[in-house]
C-alpha cells in the first residue's frame, strides 16, 4: 500500500509532515509560556498577535537577526555542522508515524492515498536509530566549542542517552511482543479493541520517563543546566545556530509524543466512548484530529513537569536510569514474554494469572529472606558493608578535597559533622584587618 503514490503526492505528504512539526513547535512554545505563567500567577506573552500567539514567531525572527558569533578556539567545521546534525534527525522520525488508518484511504487531488508518508517492517527501529543520530549534534557541539562547560554538557548528554535508551528499547520490545510487528501502522491496528496503555502500563510509564530524559527536558535537563554549566552544550552558540538547537529540542518533544501516541494510546483511533457511539469517528479526516489531541495532551505533560518539578542531581539521574528503569523494564519484558508464551500455548487466563502470580510472589519472598539475613549478618556494619570504626581497603581518613577536587566518602569513611551556624555565644563581631573566626584566632595563637 506504500510506494505507489506519484512523486508529487509524496512531496505533498513530506511538506505536510514538515509543516505539522513546525506549526506544532510554534504553538508549543507559546503554550508552554502561557501555561507556566498561569501556574506562576503571571500573564505570559500577550503582545505579539492575538493573545500573544505570534510570540514564538517573533522570537525566531529575533534570533535570526542577532549577531552570529564563532568563538576563536572552536573547531569551525564541526562547530557549524553540529546544529544541523541535531536538527535534521529530529524531523526524520515523523515519516513513519501514521496520522490515519492504512485501510481507509483519503482523496488528495483525485488520488487515493493513506495518511502516512511511508511505513517499514522495522519502523520503530528506524525511529530509535534516528533518535540516536540526533544526539551526536549535542555531543559534537559541546566538544567543538573549545570550552569546558559545553564539553561537560555534551558528555552528560551522551551518558544520559546511553542510560535511557536501554530502558526505552525494553519498553518497545513489550509492544512488539503484543502486536507481533514493528510496523507503526500494524501496531496501531492491533489496538482496535484495547489500547496498550491498559495492557502494558509499566512499559508506558517507563517510556514516559525515558522520553523526558531523551529530550533533555526538565527535570532531566542536565546537559544545559544553568546552575552549574552556565548554559551547557549551547553556551558558545548564538543567532540561528542557537535557534536550531532549540528547534531540535521542541521537534523531539513532538516526535516522542507522537511515538507514545502510536505505541500506547491507540494512535489515530478515537477514544472509546466516542468510537463506540459514532461509527464514522475513525474514517475520513477525523483520525487526524484525535491524533493531534493526544499529542497535545502529552506536550502539556512536558510543560507541567517543567513548571512543577525541580531539576534533579546528576547522580539521581543516573541512578534512576540504571538502577530503576532498566531493571524494571527488563523484568517487565520477561513477564510479558511469559504471558505471551502461555497464551500461545492456549492456556486459560486464570492459569496464566496463577503461574505468573506464583512466580512473582516467589521472587518477592526470596528477596525478603535475603534482606532479612543480610540485616542479621551486617548489624554492626555501615551501609557500605564495612564494620563500624574501620575504613575500607585503602580508604584512610576522609578528605573532602582529596586530589584537588571534591570527592565523596569511600565505604567506611565518616563525614565529619559541620554545623551550619556556630552558637550565638561563640559569634563575635569581625574586626577589620583581624581574624574573622574563633578557629582562626586559636590557630594564630591569639585571642578574640
From TrEMBL:
TM helices/strands, residue ranges: 6-31, 77-100, 120-143, 164-183, 195-213, 250-268, 288-308, 320-340, 352-373
GO CC list: plasma membrane
GO molecular function, one term: quinone binding
Class of this enzyme: translocase
Subcellular location: Cell membrane; Membrane
Region (Disordered): 401-448
EC number: 7.1.1.-
InterPro entries in the record: NADH_UbQ_OxRdtase_su1/FPO (IPR001694), NADH_UbQ_OxRdtase_su1_CS (IPR018086)
Mode of membrane association: Multi-pass membrane protein
Biased composition (Basic and acidic residues): 439-448
GO biological process annotation, one example: aerobic respiration
Catalysed reaction equations from the record: a quinone + NADH + 5 H(+)(in) = a quinol + NAD(+) + 4 H(+)(out)
Family: Belongs to the complex I subunit 1 family.
Summary of the function given for this chain in its UniProt record: NDH-1 shuttles electrons from NADH, via FMN and iron-sulfur (Fe-S) centers, to quinones in the respiratory chain. The immediate electron acceptor for the enzyme in this species is believed to be ubiquinone. Couples the redox reaction to proton translocation (for every two electrons transferred, four hydrogen ions are translocated across the cytoplasmic membrane), and thus conserves the redox energy in a proton gradient. This subunit may bind ubiquinone.
Quaternary structure (record): NDH-1 is composed of 14 different subunits. Subunits NuoA, H, J, K, L, M, N constitute the membrane sector of the complex.
Name assigned to this protein: NADH-quinone oxidoreductase subunit H
Organism: Streptomyces morookaense
Gene from which the chain derives: nuoH
Amino acid at each position: 500500500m506504500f510506494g505507489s503514490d506519484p512523486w508529487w503526492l509524496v512531496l505533498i505528504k513530506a511538506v505536510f509532515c514538515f509543516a505539522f512539526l513546525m506549526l506544532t513547535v510554534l504553538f508549543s512554545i507559546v503554550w508552554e509560556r502561557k501555561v507556566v505563567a498561569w501556574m506562576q500567577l503571571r500573564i505570559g506573552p500577550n503582545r505579539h498577535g492575538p493573545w500573544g500567539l505570534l510570540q514564538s514567531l517573533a522570537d525566531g525572527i529575533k534570533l535570526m537577526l542577532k549577531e552570529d558569533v564563532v568563538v576563536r578556539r572552536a573547531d569551525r567545521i564541526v562547530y557549524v555542522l553540529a546544529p544541523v546534525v541535531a536538527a535534521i534527525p529530529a524531523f526524520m522520525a515523523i515519516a513513519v508515524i501514521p496520522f490515519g488508518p492504512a485501510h481507509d484511504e483519503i482523496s488528495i487531488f483525485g488520488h487515493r492515498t493513506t495518511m502516512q508518508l511511508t511505513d517499514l517492517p522495522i519502523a520503530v527501529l528506524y525511529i530509535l536509530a534516528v533518535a540516536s543520530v540526533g544526539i551526536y549534534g549535542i555531543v559534537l557541539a559541546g566538544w567543538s566549542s573549545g570550552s569546558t562547560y559545553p564539553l561537560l554538557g555534551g558528555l552528560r548528554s551522551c551518558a544520559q542517552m546511553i542510560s535511557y535508551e536501554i530502558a526505552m528499547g525494553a519498553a518497545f520490545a513489550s509492544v512488539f511482543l503484543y502486536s507481533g510487528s514493528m510496523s507503526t501502522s500494524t501496531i496501531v491496528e492491533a489496538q482496535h479493541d484495547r489500547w496498550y496503555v491498559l495492557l502494558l502500563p509499566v512499559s508506558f510509564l517507563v517510556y514516559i520517563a525515558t522520553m523526558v530524559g531523551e529530550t533533555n527536558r526538565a527535570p532531566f535537563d542536565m546537559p544545559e543546566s544553568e546552575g552549574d554549566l552556565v548554559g551547557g552544550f549551547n553556551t558558545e552558540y548564538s543567532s540561528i545556530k542557537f535557534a536550531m538547537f532549540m528547534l531540535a529540542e521542541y521537534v523531539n518533544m513532538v516526535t516522542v509524543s507522537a511515538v507514545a501516541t502510536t505505541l500506547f494510546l491507540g494512535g489515530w483511533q478515537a477514544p472509546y466512548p466516542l468510537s463506540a457511539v459514532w461509527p464514522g469517528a475513525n474514517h475520513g479526516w477525523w483520525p487526524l484530529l484525535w491524533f493531534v489531541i493526544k499529542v497535545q495532551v502529552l506536550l502539556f505533560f512536558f510543560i507541567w513537569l517543567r513548571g512543577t518539578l525541580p531539576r534533579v542531581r546528576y547522580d539521581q539521574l543516573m541512578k534512576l536510569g540504571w538502577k530503576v528503569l532498566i531493571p524494571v523494564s527488563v523484568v517487565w519484558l520477561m513477564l510479558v514474554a511469559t504471558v505471551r508464551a502461555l497464551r500461545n500455548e492456549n492456556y486459560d487466563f486464570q492459569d496464566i494469572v496463577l503461574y505468573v502470580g506464583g512466580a512473582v510472589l516467589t521472587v518477592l519472598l526470596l528477596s525478603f529472606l535475603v534482606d532479612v539475613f543480610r540485616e542479621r549478618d551486617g548489624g554492626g556494619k555501615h551501609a557500605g558493608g564495612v564494620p563500624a570504626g574501620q575504613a575500607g581497603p585503602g580508604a584512610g581518613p576522609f578528605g573532602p578535597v582529596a586530589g584537588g577536587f571534591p570527592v565523596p566518602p569511600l565505604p567506611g569513611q565518616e563525614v565529619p559533622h559541620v554545623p551550619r551556624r556556630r552558637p550565638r555565644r561563640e559569634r563575635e563581631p569581625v574586626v577589620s584587618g583581624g581574624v574573622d573566626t574563633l578557629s582562626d584566632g586559636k590557630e594564630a595563637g591569639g585571642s578574640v
